[in-house]
Amino acid sequence: MEHPESTILYICPTCFRVCETEQECHEHQMTAEHQMFACNPGKLGDERRKPVSDRFGKYVSRAPRWFLEAAGWIED
Ligand SMILES: [Zn+2]
Questions:
Q1: 25 alpha carbon to ligand 1 midpoint, in Å?
Q2: In a domain, 19, yes or no
Q3: How much is the pTM?
């Protein structure tokens, strides 16, 4: 069975646990910040999987673009 072209993943912003279904991580701390992010990492080799650099060529973060988008740090 072939994988779909893009898959939504859910990632915990605290411990970076990744799941295929949306759920609460850290169940004993039911706060909004422990709600997992919905991410779309795109296809293999997609630009979204690369770290983001600013207009001076400096990396904004070592995290891939899809993570920063999901975390709300950069605009889509
Ligand atoms: Zn977690």
A1: 4
A2: yes
A3: 0.55
